[in-house]
TrEMBL record:
Homodimer. Keywords: Aminotransferase, Cytoplasm, Glutamine amidotransferase, Repeat, Transferase. This is Glutamine--fructose-6-phosphate aminotransferase [isomerizing]. One of its GO terms (molecular function) is glutamine-fructose-6-phosphate transaminase (isomerizing) activity. The gene is glmS. It comes from the Bacteria. Its main location: cytoplasm. Catalyzes the first step in hexosamine metabolism, converting fructose-6P into glucosamine-6P using glutamine as a nitrogen source. It catalyses: D-fructose 6-phosphate + L-glutamine = D-glucosamine 6-phosphate + L-glutamate. Its EC number is 2.6.1.16. The active site is at residue 359. It comes from Streptomyces griseoluteus. GO terms for cellular component: cytosol.
Length: 364
């Protein structure tokens, strides 16, 4: 593809900086202030059907799977429907029980990933209802699905996904709000979420203004042989995605772990040469997260926190703007996209085309 890079040195850099506009697009025309909900024209799911859903299962690969993990949490929180995400590649091969009261959602930037498409086809063959959360209009997965949401991120050229990830998480917030408002989410909470959604583009712009600080940090971290990413509940999928982004474009080994599981293994790895990136939202788990930082510090581990306020136990904190608790995961990974990008630059990597990877894997 050859879209204009618009003065950026890579598509990745351009796409990171397009995120405020991209989020604006996924929201546009969808918010209904009168009923504190959203309209999703392509969903093809009426209120009666929405109320009959007993579970939600989200399927995707790579970055889309991580966006789905965030989506599952939002659906569970706002709509109170049990929801989880699973790699489509695993789901396909485990002869999963297909349940008529489960809503299946396939997530894909390209809409062409073979493992996701094959999962959709298998589900449809078994009579399941499948929605798509897809970027590319008219793609195979979009056509195969019974309905869905286009994420309107615009063309994404860099092999690793940034703006589409962010837009996909916003699309899930819209779906969670919509499902919530057909069920037990109050008008008041609906309003609260809508206000939060409207703040996102300006908050993204604010985060991107810290690029210089992140670039300096990246110089320091680019020397690491390995990095640990931790988060708890809302922060965990953010840690997963940040870890994936780092390994994809820098080839630095990175591992993501739930902060709550540190004591069951990864603490053994902690030493000054293994830095930890901790996602520390200002939510009801803040104190628990602080305790984890303390555990790491006590073992001389170096810590970079992404948080809503300066973290005393961290060596450095990237402070991001606070949104509603449920929407915080949409924002918290954005500085870490920049961290991966600048670390890859220091290392002289081929950022838009990392070795051994393809933008979409359309074969078995
Ligand atoms: C490939 C790409 C990833 C992407 C994944 C899923 O592995 O390198 O960046 O997340 O496919 O792609 P999709 O188009 O289905 O979101």
């Amino acid at each position: 593809a050859s879209y204009d890079m618009g003065g950026h040195d890579t598509y990745m850099h351009k796409e990171i900086h397009e995120q405020a506009d991209a989020v604006d697009r996924v929201l546009r025309g969808r918010i209904d202030d009168r009923f504190s909900t959203v309209h999703l024209g392509g969903l093809n799911l009426d209120a009666r059907e929405a109320r009959r859903i007993r579970r939600v299962k989200i399927l995707g690969c790579g970055t889309s799977y991580h966006a789905g993990m965030i989506g599952a949490q939002m659906i569970e929180e706002l709509a109170r429907i049990p929801a989880d995400a699973e790699p489509a590649s695993e789901f396909r091969y485990r002869n999963a029980v297909v349940d008529p009261d489960t809503l299946y959602i396939a997530v894909s930037q390209s809409g062409e990933t073979y493992d996701v498409l094959a999962a959709v086809q298998e589900l449809k063959r078994k009579g399941a209802r499948v929605l798509g959360v897809v970027n590319v209009v008219g793609s195979a997965i979009a056509r195969e699905a019974d309905g869905g949401i286009y994420v309107h991120a615009g063309p994404e050229v860099c092999v690793v996904s940034t703006k589409c990830f962010t837009n996909t998480t916003v699309a899930f917030a819209l779906l969670a709000l919509h499902l919530g408002r057909t069920r037990d989410l109050s008008v008041r909470d609906g309003k609260r979420i809508i206000e939060g959604l409207r703040k996102l583009p300006a908050q993204i712009a604010e985060i991107l203004k810290q690029e210089e600080l992140v670039r300096e940090l990246a110089e320091e971290y680019a020397e690491s042989r390995s990095m640990l990413f931790i988060g708890r509940v809302r922060g965990y999928p953010v840690a997963r995605e940040a870890s994936l982004k780092l390994k994809e474009i820098t080839y630095i080994h990175a591992e993501a772990y739930p902060a709550s599981e540190l004591k069951h293994g990864p603490l053994a790895l902690i030493e000054p040469a293994l830095p930890t990136v901790a996602i520390v939202p200002d939510d009801d788990l803040l104190e628990k997260n602080r305790a984890a930082l303390e555990e790491i510090k006590a073992r001389s581990g170096k810590i970079l926190a992404v948080a809503h306020q300066e973290q005393e136990k961290a060596d450095r904190t990237i402070v991001v703007p606070k949104n509603e608790d449920e929407l915080d995961p949409i924002l918290m990974g954005i500085p870490l996209q920049l961290l991966a990008y600048h670390a890859a630059k220091v290392l002289g990597r081929d950022i838009d085309k990392p070795r051994n990877l393809a933008k979409s894997v359309t074969v078995e």
